[in-house]
Amino acid sequence: MTVAAARRRVRIRVTGTVQGVGFRPYVHRLAAELGLTGFVLNDERGVVVEAEGEPGAVERLLARLPAEAPPLAAVERVVAEPRPATGERGFAIVESEAGGERLAIVAPDSATCADCLRELFDPGDRRYRYPFVNCTNCGPRFTIVRGVPYDRPLTTMAGFAMCAACRAEYDDPADRRFHAQPNACPACGPRAVLTDAKGRRLAAGDQVAAAAALLREGTIVAVKGLGGWHLACLAADERAVAELRARKRREEKPFALMAAGLEAARALVELSPADEALLLGRERPIVIAPRRADAPVAHAVAPRSAELGVMLPHAPLHHLLLHDVGAPIVLTSGNVSDEPIAYADDDARERLGPIADAFLGHDRPIHMRTDDSVVRATGEGPLLLRRSRGYVPAAVPLPLEAPPLLACGAELKNAFCVAKGRRAWVSHHLGDLTNWETLRSFREGVAHFERLFAVEPEVVAHDLHPDYLPTAYALEREGVELVAVQHHHAHLAACLAEHGEEGPAVGAIYDGTGLGSDGTAWGGELLAGDLEGFERAGHLLPVRLPGGDRAAREPWRMACAWLCAAGADVSRVPPALAGDVPAERWRAVARLAAGGPTAPPTTSAGRLFDAVAALCGVRAVTSYEGQAAIELEACAAPGPARPYPIAVEPGPPVVIDPRETIRCVARDAAAGRPAAAVSARFHAALAAATAEAVAAVAAARGIGTAVLSGGVFCNRRLVEQTARALRAAGLRVLVPRALPPNDGGIAYGQAAVAAARTRGRG
Ligand SMILES: [Zn+2]
Ligand SMILES: [Zn+2]
């Protein structure tokens, strides 16, 4: 038997996130170890390997290829086909092939890896204290990419020519920095600089150390990160944090914190092993967890919150800064109130000039603004509240084939989505599109994603609401098929699709408001359906929304509307609101709540939370979306509570009727019962009624799966209690995992619905 006869050769196609993540050197090492010959190359669809050698060794390669892939790779498929053996010698990394359909994927930005971290703090290393150290296993990606293929000239590193030492690493297949596009060192790469708002340098020598010294003295410093500018100050410094809050126009949202490492984070919040894994993950999101009673944190960081949002350093600059400061810092978005985060340097200096005393910047431009991602751990697993830096643009699989499409998303908390085949690329969190700057980011972002992922939309999905800006954008697109998707159906579809399912299921979809199929404002919906369609099988009892959109900012209006609906006495202001609401305004709203064109009916669950929060004195007027509901949850007494009475009318449609609940809330609040007890009993009532109603709808239709989604289900207590009761009723429960339960998941849901409705059509 000749040697050649015993050899086997295969051609392997690897798809997924396999470019710019050290995949080819990895294959090269593996082949060398297994004694295989052949080659590996990148093409526009991913990575191609041809390998030849002992049949057993080829088998081992196929088994190990996906299993041991580099940390930033996400292998979706490995397909091998036999080839005749050629007797080829050696194993080569060959130049990229051009042509064919473009499907290669840009990776998300990733936290500094352990190897780079060691170099960062090693006085003997040439990158000692270099704030931009990175390699193929870590560093900036999405935020610096201007176009594809992912290659240095098409990144914001194009302006930095590599020195001989960096170039040698970049060209060496055995090196950790082989083809690491952002590769740099102190001799050739970006530099940090500490300036005032006018761009004048503030210090000589080590710029990060100088910024840390300012922070320790109580100064507010703007810091340029991966996806935008942050505002920083000492977390324990009452005066500095209060000053930051005042300069950010008295914003009331909790500030995020950054701690140097796990030990420091444990001193701030109670962390489960799952929370710790999230904190340490390469996405490095902000993790919201229960605050420790003795946390060394200024009161103004998160007033009225039982939790704190904490993250660990994600870029080397942050590692250095936290090391030098020696204590946790506030690291909150660099913006004023609800404006988008600043990412361009001149814009940052202009907008943040009145807030920050100093600017720690650098000369590597940010191409794509990305906010920090936010995760909240619950008994039902982690919920992504904001999906952005670290997660985007990783593809989210679809359970069915999609034509090339664009889904425009919701108007607030906007993220859009492009899709093709079985993959959807959901954009970074953009925010409120009624802000002109954000709308511009949306338009530019859509064009960028269409280029990056080679999607030329044939279908454009949008919300039913004709006045939404994303809808207006969809209607501008020419030569496409438009698919209008009801808001709450999109929530249901998003949750089903990310779990790889098409339904049917019964969804309890609770949020602020979204336009319903009947033209009214929905928001407490029980939908029975699948990806293609749905039936409104039930809902919360409709009440009046006195003053329309104003009701969302003034929860006391909803308190009045719900008291009216419950037949309670609204002739005078309830005691808990007496200090907040003048009697004549209360009476005017009570008249509105009786009906009329400026008080349209709504089934909004978010507004029910507002009403209860106002009635028990938690909050009468809000300064940001969802504030009353968030504070109502935060104040609830821990542990189980006896639910208030609540009615579930069997219908059809099933109606959850909390009028008796409202009467109890009002009575207990008037009797001076603490908000903690009222809130806990209200949560228990709504969870029980929701589970009962969903189970009834499911039983009537022979459906075994329940979905909980919509912004209201960002509420840890509500999602845990409702899911528990549904399982006790024998149902399988799905909650959003890969995408936010709030409107950040809408675009992906629209994409899934559009794919289902256009299925089988050319
Ligand atoms: Zn690294
Ligand atoms: Zn260099």
Which features does this protein show?
about 750 residues, Alpha-Beta Plaits, DHBP synthase, Nucleotidyltransferase, domain 5, ten-stranded mixed β-sheet, seven-stranded mixed β-sheet, globular, binds zinc ion
Structural summary, described in words:
The protein is an alpha/beta fold. The chain has four domains: 3-93, Alpha-Beta Plaits; 192-362, DHBP synthase; 395-497 and 744-757, 2-Layer Sandwich (Nucleotidyltransferase, domain 5), CATH 3.30.420; 507-736, ATPase, nucleotide binding domain (Nucleotidyltransferase, domain 5), CATH 3.30.420. It has 23 helices and 28 strands. The strands form five sheets. The chain has a ten-stranded mixed β-sheet with strand order 6-13-7-8-12-9-11-10-14-15, sandwiched between helices. The radius of gyration is 27 Å and the shape is globular. The two termini are 53 Å apart. The mean pLDDT is 93. The structure holds zinc ion (2 copies). Residues 113, 115-116, 134-135, 137-138 line the site of one zinc ion. One zinc ion (ZN) is lined by residues 113, 115-116, 134-135, 137-138.
Helix content: 25-40%
Bound molecules: zinc ion
For the record, the CATH architecture of the largest domain stands as 2-Layer Sandwich
Topology-level CATH name of the largest domain: Nucleotidyltransferase, domain 5
Tell me the major beta sheet. Answer: 10 strands, mixed
| Low-confidence runs of at least 5 consecutive residues | none
Return the CATH class of the largest domain: Alpha Beta
The structure class reads alpha/beta
Using the alpha-carbon principal axes, give the shape: globular
Question: How many DSSP-defined strands?
Answer: 28
* Strand fraction: 15-25%
Name given to the CATH homologous superfamily of the largest domain = ATPase, nucleotide binding domain
Which whole number gives the mean pLDDT? Answer: 93
Rg estimate, integer Å: 27 Å
Cross-sheet strand order for the largest sheet: 6-13-7-8-12-9-11-10-14-15
